[in-house]
Design goal:
With 265 residues, the protein is an alpha+beta fold. The protein has two domains: 132 residues, Fructose-1,6-Bisphosphatase, Chain A, domain 1; 123 residues, D-Maltodextrin-Binding Protein, domain 2, CATH 3.40.190. 35% of the residues lie in helices and 26% in strands. The strands form three sheets. The chain has a seven-stranded mixed β-sheet with strand order 3-4-5-6-7-8-9, sandwiched between helices. It has a five-stranded mixed β-sheet with strand order 11-10-12-14-13, with helices on both faces. About 4% of the residues have low confidence.
């Protein structure tokens, strides 16, 4: 199945590359956009993935989704990094994960701009273009930290940058790339050491979670279960290599809990 999935995701990325970022529509939330390419890519993925695994369902960014259940479920982001795509930055990806009984089984992430295909299968490791990958062993004080700004939830801006302020002082440096799934893939292959974002949708992190765990990293959610998928809310995500986990999590979680108290949660 994984070989067929690789063909499907590359064909989906071709749709994205061939189409100009036109037909831009604003969705609910601050700076939340969708293009015609998002919709056409997702339509293609839905047709091909449901054909690949009869009886499965798809949970995707650009569609109305049924509540998550135990059926085989494809979790799809047709273009992660849409704002990068709109601005021609060339840092976006297609992401697919497969869950069964609310457990992640397969992950496939493709960055067509670098022709990089990240794959993982539960219990069988993580790979980049067929080569085994693993998280770094960089210590916390030398870590490269990436983060997302949760732009669709403006109330999280202050909490995010309080955490970034501390991480900037305590780790080597920080980066904001604009594609959560590629940030997660970078952790899996050792290009980055810490990543967090306080509000991510399932399609933003599902494939990345499996990539990181299969690459030997640590991945946790601050507000949802870790042992099974739960799409009842957006997720506060923290992930890192094992060496950075305790110190990085303390900073990120402390600022998130402070925000929760401010909101009366």
């Amino acid at each position: 199945m994984l070989t067929k999935l690789e063909t499907i995701i590359k064909n989906a990325a071709e749709i994205m590359l061939k189409m100009q970022p036109k037909g831009i529509v604003s969705k609910e939330g601050h700076a939340n956009f969708v293009t015609e390419a998002d919709k056409k890519t997702q339509d293609f993925l839905q047709e091909e993935l449901l054909k690949l695994l009869p009886g499965s369902v798809m949970y995707g960014e650009e569609k109305e989704n049924e509540p998550l259940d135990d059926k085989p479920t494809w979790v799809v982001d047709p273009i992660d990094g849409t704002l990068n795509y709109i601005h021609g930055i060339g840092h976006s990806a297609v992401a697919i994960a497969l869950a069964e009984n609310r457990q992640l089984k397969l992950a496939c992430v493709y960055n067509p701009y670098r022709q990089e295909l990240f794959t993982a299968e539960k219990g069988r490791g993580a790979y980049l273009n067929g080569e085994r990958i693993s998280c770094s062993d960089t210590p916390y004080e030398r870590a490269l930290t990436s983060f997302g700004t949760s732009p669709y939830v403006p109330g999280l801006v202050d909490a995010t940058f309080r955490a970034v302020n501390t991480l900037m002082r305590e780790t080597a440096d920080v980066r904001r790339f604009g594609s959560a799934i590629l940030d997660l893939a970078n952790i899996a292959c050792g290009r980055g050491d810490i990543f967090f974002e306080y509000s991510l949708s399932p399609w933003d992190y599902a494939a990345g979670a499996l990539l990181i765990r299969e690459a030997g990293g640590r991945f946790t959610l601050l507000n949802l279960p870790d042992d099974r998928l739960d799409f009842s809310a957006t997720a506060a995500v923290f992930t890192s290599n094992p060496q950075c986990f305790e110190k990085g999590l303390e900073v990120v979680e402390r600022n998130y809990r402070e925000w929760q108290k401010e909101q009366g949660r």
